[in-house]
Amino acid sequence: MPTIETNGVTLFYKVIGNGPPLVFTHGAGWDHTQWQPQIAHFANRFRVIVWDVRGHGRSTLPDTPVDPADFSRDLVGLLDALDIRQAILVGLSMGGHISLQTAIGYPDRVAALVLMGTPCTNRFNWRERLLVPINRWSARLIPMSFLAKWTGQSMAKHSAAAGQSIDQAMRQISYERWQRIWHAVTSMESRAGLPQISCPTLILEGADDWLVQHQQTYLTTHIPQATHHVIQHAFHAINWDNPQDAHRYIDEFIAGLPATIDR
Questions:
Q1: Helix, strand, coil % in the chain, rounded to nearest 5
Q2: With a threshold of 0.85, does the pTM exceed it?
Q3: Termini Cα distance of the chain
Q4: How, if at all, do strands 201-206 and 9-16 pair?
Q5: Tell me: the pLDDT tens digits for 85-115?
Q6: What is the rounded CA–CA span in Å between residue 149 and residue 167?
Q7: What's the pLDDT tens digit per position in 238-257?
Q8: Quick one: pLDDT at residue 133?
Q9: How far apart are CA 225 and CA 107, in angstroms?
């Protein structure tokens, strides 16, 4: 089982294929299995790296509060362990936000960003500022088995496979662990750093994704080199709901990157 030790945790990862590095980071509650459609599409041309964020899947979590900055520090630790100087980062939801914060905090390590259904804050408007504390409180009352089933069903609007995948992944996370992870995820904040992102950025938005839809134009206008596309027939799990269109946009984006970027 391939793992690395970094920042006080053991991180599980997989490397598939050869070529320029593409690092995929999953959403909250999910794990590296989220990226099965992308492994099949990209591994014949790229060095595809998938991993479990601390507290998810086969990665460990210390018995201490989770600092939101730990997530991007872990991603850089993974790059260091794999001797990767610079990579294209691809992430969905929480994984997109981790990739975003890595580009802000460690710009020399990020060649380009692909952000799917990604927030830059959990306090974007008054509704979010009101709902986040309620969400944290209500999560303390819901058993993990129910939360996993409900989240999986919510994600299965266009793909039953996506729903089954996240249901199975969330059932591996203990109730106590999830409370600390979710508090950290909902504390992530990146708005002030968006203008600092110096790499080309592709923003993919699910046409039906009401969860973070309201933030996608903001990301596009505040990240200097951002390109934005809406994926039809897709909710939040864009990579499962409509992988064909997602792959097409990612392929076009990578093909158009400057020749100075490692590919």
A1: 45, 20, 35
A2: yes
A3: 28
A4: unpaired
A5: 999 999 999 999 999 999 999 999 999 999 9
A6: 5
A7: 999 999 999 999 999 999 99
A8: 53
A9: 14
Q: Which residue has the tokens 């097409």?
A: 248
Mean pLDDT, range 194-213, rounded to an integer = 95
Residues whose CB is less than 8 angstroms from the CB of residue 128 and which lie 6 or more positions away in sequence, other chains included: 121, 122
Catalogue the E-assigned strands of 87-245.
87-92, 110-116, 201-206, 226-231
Q: Sort strands 87-92 and 226-231 into parallel, antiparallel or unpaired.
A: unpaired
Domain assignments of the chain as residue spans, ordered by start: 3-255
- Nearest alpha carbon to residue 84 among 16, 174, 166, 23: 23
The C-alpha atoms of residue 169 and residue 117 are separated, in whole angstroms, by 19
Lowest mean pLDDT among 45-49, 57-61, 156-160, 169-173: 156-160
Q: How many CB atoms lie within 10 A of CB 255?
A: 8
For residue 239, CA distances in Å to 7, 21, 27, 181, 193 come to: 29, 18, 11, 23, 26
Q: What is the DSSP string of 83-96?
A: T-S-EEEEEETHHH
Residue range 3-255, CATH number: 3.40.50.1820
Residue 115: how many CB atoms within 10 A of its CB? 30
The owner of tokens 């990767």 is: 84
Dihedral angle sign, alpha carbons of residues 167, 172, 178, 182: negative
Phi and psi torsions of 11, nearest 5°: -110, 130
